[in-house]
Amino acid sequence: MNLASLSIAELKRALVVGELSACDIASQTLANIEHHNPALNAWTRVTQERMLQEADRLDRLKREGQSLPVLVAVPYAVKNLFDVAGHSTLAGASLFSNRTVARQDAWAVHKLAASGGLLSGMLNMDAYAYGFTTENSHYGATHNPHDLARIAGGSSGGSAAAVAAGVVHFSLGTDTNGSIRVPASLCGIFGLKPTFGRLSRSGSHPFVASLDHIGPFARRVSDLTQVYDALQGRDAQDSFQAERAMQPVTPLLECGMEGLRCGVLGGYFQQWCDDDARLAVAQAAKALNASEEIVLPEAELARAAAFIITASEGGNHYLPALRSSPECFEPLSRERLLAGAMIPSAWYVQAQRFRRHFQQQVLARFAEVDVLIAPATPTSATLIGQETMRINGSDL
User: Fold this and answer.
1) Of the residues 21, 111, 120, 155, which is catalytic?
2) Looking at 12, 79, 111, 193, which residue is catalytic?
């Protein structure tokens, strides 16, 4: 049975009726990783022993007639930024090659294990989660499953490639300024960056504490919502987590689109896109009956503010290591992180003030619409090693 052709719900049904066992699923997934990963370079570590042990435990639950958890025997993997007990969290960087192994799972990994998920391993990423291509100088580039000569996007490129290749049903990534949305778009799958503070980040080593999110990737929206629901829950260890009750979203898929008000972001969001990206937005807008164009005049300033916040927080986060062990950083990463650490504090404060101002502008628009549609990337996946892209006659 081809696991990739099954949704999470279909996989569970096959398990319940005995067409598949959890051990079958684990073995097939591990074989697929062995077959596909040399070309993809998505996995930096395979957790084979853990996966087989968990599969055996789930099969025993079924034989004993116990109730099966919602994600029972669903194979997944996580960005190598999430702690996995017994393994080192590498964050895509040679700096952490000798890092002590994690004593416990990250909160999200713990939640997924409790929901029955089968962890297959840890995935490639841009070093320190600071990049958009997953062309990693230490662990190599991750390749796009649709065209191995092209990037998978980043920084969660391994997370997107693993799902797009059909090897696992879902994966976890993180997003500061697009690190879930960009690779999901370039690999042709679904990615969710939830509301800030909605999901716990404990054990996920945030790069920019005031901006980072965790979120899932999947090939189906129904799979994405089930994983998101499984990740919800209050974690007292995460001081950034919002005080909100759990709000399951999977039941909302039955509601349809009646009454849904959709708008299309124009101006800056359309200006720096190629024709294919504009066409994709137009097709989505047509499907959602979105005709109103909404312009946010200060969107470009918001982008600048986001990059100031990212560079400043990220650079200062790693400044002690940059001072004590500069030779452990890849040259490009060292240069970018040092530049960020030198950003004047007044710039950072002003960027955070503008962030709040822009948030209020955007929130006001949701009095008019429920959904804002925008391109996730300005173009489709570029070639690995390509340093510029041509948009509207300009090389960027």
Assistant:
1) 155
2) 79
Average pLDDT for the chain: 96
CB of 240 within 8 A of CB of 141?
A: no
CA distance 249 to 252: 5
Active site residue 21: no
Residue 200 designated active-site: no
- State phi, psi for 262 to the nearest 5 degrees: -120, 140
Largest CA distance in the chain: 65
Q: Which of 159, 179, 200, 202 is catalytic?
A: 179
Give all domains of the chain, ordered by start, each with its CATH number: 7-255 (3.90.1300.10), 262-395 (no CATH)
pLDDT of 48 above 90 = yes
Q: What is the pLDDT of residues 309-326, one digit of tens each?
A: 999 999 999 999 999 999
Backbone angles phi, psi at 122, to 5 degrees: -120, 145
Smallest CA-to-CA distance from 77 within 12, 165, 168 is with 168
Give whole-number Cα distances, 253 to 224, 249, 296, 300, in Å. 11, 7, 29, 33
Tell the residue number behind the tokens 């503010």, with chain if given. Answer: 305
Give the tens place of pLDDT for each residue, 219-275: 999 999 999 999 999 999 999 998 888 999 999 999 988 899 999 999 999 988 999
Q: Give the model's pLDDT for residue 261.
A: 95
Task: List pLDDT tens digits, range 276-292.
Answer: 999 999 999 999 999 88
To which residue do tokens 């452990």 refer? 328
Query: Is 62 one of the annotated active-site residues of the chain?
Result: no
